[in-house]
């Protein structure tokens, strides 16, 4: 760890989704001293609250109107370019070097400023689903020509979104640093509770309709859903829906671990035609509590989900998923074997392993 390097972390929208969660653990991996760490993000509540280092607020606004949203996005990039350029120039004036780490494909303003003024530029790529396609090509252009290094969260993503110029590596996500690690799974309770757990959003491509169908197929199971949205958004969504009696939906529950701890099985129902999961962190979190999982059969999850710890299947095959759940329910020994394998898999993706991987990465390329 050099005392002459400032590291600038860029993330546009601070919320409680997966990419800022992973980014938070990267920032907290003690790559640099807190006084040499700068975090640019929006003034929203999220996983980057209380982050280690100096937080710098950057503009970010949202709108349901696509044209207004585009205007907000472009404005945010102009302002981010100015803010980051000012900081990087100040860094140079002080005789210090800099590394800029840009989270997700979106902050092209940061990538451009970093290309002009920083020593090394790292893009941390979590996503492949960027629409429209023209926007994705535009963002990829900036990564190709501005980044010196790219971190991908899975081999699938690296193959799918490969770049020619930057040095590319895979660092698997880990269980977040504040995620409770259990030494022993309460198998009897989990098997008897008969609770399924889904963590996602209200987007159709996350399989919310399929979740309703699955709940209807399994009336003797309780189905819990933790949705990353505001209460008002959830109320509006549910106002014209017939909710199965055994389905309970919560907007950003405060203690999501409680649901993982109780779950008989954890569901990821993303639809591969519209959204391919690049990793699937909620599946890993379920496994850490000994929950077998249902996962999409394409994308990042196939790198750690298999037929010994879960079920790889297209989420639209709800009847087959229900049959798998009933198969697990037919015998404690069958369910427990899946549970044990899931629990063992999760041990390969601990927060400490992730921290070591990030530290070794920065040391390898002399980024800090």
TrEMBL record:
The chain crosses the membrane at residues 70-88. InterPro entries: Glyco_trans_1. This is Glycosyltransferase Gtf1. Coiled coil: none annotated. One of its GO terms (molecular function) is glycosyltransferase activity. It holds the Pfam family Glycos_transf_1. It comes from the Bacteria. Its EC number is 2.4.1.-. Residues 192-331 form the Glycosyl transferase family domain. It comes from Colwellia marinimaniae. The keyword Glycosyltransferase applies. Keywords: Glycosyltransferase, Membrane, Transferase, Transmembrane, Transmembrane helix. SUPFAM superfamilies: UDP-Glycosyltransferase/glycogen phosphorylase.
